Amino acid sequence: MDPTGSTIELSIDSDFQFVELVASVTDSITQLVGFGPEEAYWIGLSVRESVINAIKHGNKLDVKKPVEVKFVISDDQIVIYVKDFGEGFDPSCVPNPLDPVNLLNPNGRGIFYMRTFMDEVDFQTPSSGGTVVVMRKRKTAKTTGL
Amino acid sequence: MDPTGSTIELSIDSDFQFVELVASVTDSITQLVGFGPEEAYWIGLSVRESVINAIKHGNKLDVKKPVEVKFVISDDQIVIYVKDFGEGFDPSCVPNPLDPVNLLNPNGRGIFYMRTFMDEVDFQTPSSGGTVVVMRKRKTAKTTGL
Amino acid sequence: MSLVINQRTIGEVTILDLSGKITIGVGNVQLREAIKKLLEAGNKKILLNLADVSYVDSSGIGELVHSFTTTSNAGGTLKLLNLTKKIQDLLAITKLLTVFETFSNEDEAVASFK
Amino acid sequence: MSLVINQRTIGEVTILDLSGKITIGVGNVQLREAIKKLLEAGNKKILLNLADVSYVDSSGIGELVHSFTTTSNAGGTLKLLNLTKKIQDLLAITKLLTVFETFSNEDEAVASFK
Ligand SMILES: Nc1ncnc2c1ncn2[C@@H]1O[C@H](COP(=O)(O)OP(=O)(O)O)[C@@H](O)[C@H]1O
Ligand SMILES: Nc1ncnc2c1ncn2[C@@H]1O[C@H](COP(=O)(O)OP(=O)(O)O)[C@@H](O)[C@H]1O
Q: I need a labelling partner for C85 at 20 to 30 A (CA). Which of A5, B144, C6, D31 fits?
């Protein structure tokens, strides 16, 4: 990749029909950066999960609120920002899906998958409101723990 | 398509390696709107031409200047805005590529193709500078004149 | 592309051949409806064939869990056949391989219900 | 994906089998170099086989024009073989079908150089 530090920004309305679009942009970008197909697959899944959360929990399906996705790419890593305009939340209060009491809960695995597949996942609450999920993946990847 | 009036925005750095990305987003969107493959192909080509012009003639390959692409879609049409941060130009001064004297010029066909394949092509010069190409294509398409 | 569900019966076992995606807003309603109808009709031995499921996200995994618990709560049994590598990974990561009985051979899967 | 150029000779005619894309920054340098080398080596009957060209934009059309004029200026002849429908359309729209000699049959194309 050359130049390093390129930025791609994508903004969609809060409608699930656009999740696929963000995923396909993600695929194109991870290919540009040179991630292998396996890593690219899981980065794509993590982006889907975060965008779905932004649409559903953040913007609460209000199509007038956008979801903004920013990709900052370089030779050896990708950093992805997913921003919504919701009320924010406390990630430390999200129940652990591996807890036996949650094992059969149909919900609650999205953030866990993001944390599994990406090297770093942070949740920021900008003063302007909403949530920004920041996910980093380096190319010399740790294994996904499988 | 539901809801109508959805907006998708995409911003890239001025590097030709991202043209393909914009093209693949365009393909996904024209498919969502329901354009046929032939129409979608030529819309994609028009978007490439305008993005290439924005990178080359507008931003003059300065990677620090973004190219901003906005898609406004509805049931029956797509309107695409391609914005650069260059010096602008006078589209009425662009030579006609069909003029015999220009026929063998290796350049100068991009805008002509855009005008051929899209229903409307406008060039705006916002007070903030640069050029915005506005291209509209309706789904009940006129033939491309072929 | 959404989810296509084809239904087959072998002995007492109903096999649902799923084809397509199970993600948010895609496939989950169809799968719920199909399971509900089977249970209402008294078909309580259900095998989900996932061979042609092209994509599953956390919502899709959630739908599999939901199908499982609905069936169990109705006194039935739901098992999984032909997991793709990715589905296997997603189930393993969230410790769901310990919950689901999974098979890679249809005859064995059907026989296991006896 | 970029442009791959394979070179063949039939009699006095050099055929360049182009495969891939001819767009801005992709393929144009290769094509220029290939034509330049042929002309320098005295090969002045050039046939571009476009059958496997997957994408061409206005820059690609410009490259075909450039190849044509460079060859003509060197006293040679450049013709086109197996235009895809899209290339045909792009050439037609800009009145370039009147400039290029085009063929859909290789034998006929080769014979036409005699
Ligand atoms: N962008 C967000 N804005 C507000 N709340 C969120 C956001 N993302 C996640 N959450 C909260 O975190 C919880 C867990 O999210 P997740 O692990 O993705 O599972 P699920 O979406 O299935 O509930 C959600 O139920 C929601 O309460
Ligand atoms: N975004 C732009 N900013 C400045 N000038 C432009 C822009 N787009 C087009 N032009 C001018 O219009 C001319 C014709 O453009 P075009 O028809 O696309 O052909 P080409 O790019 O091959 O020259 C360009 O050479 C350039 O001078």
A: C6
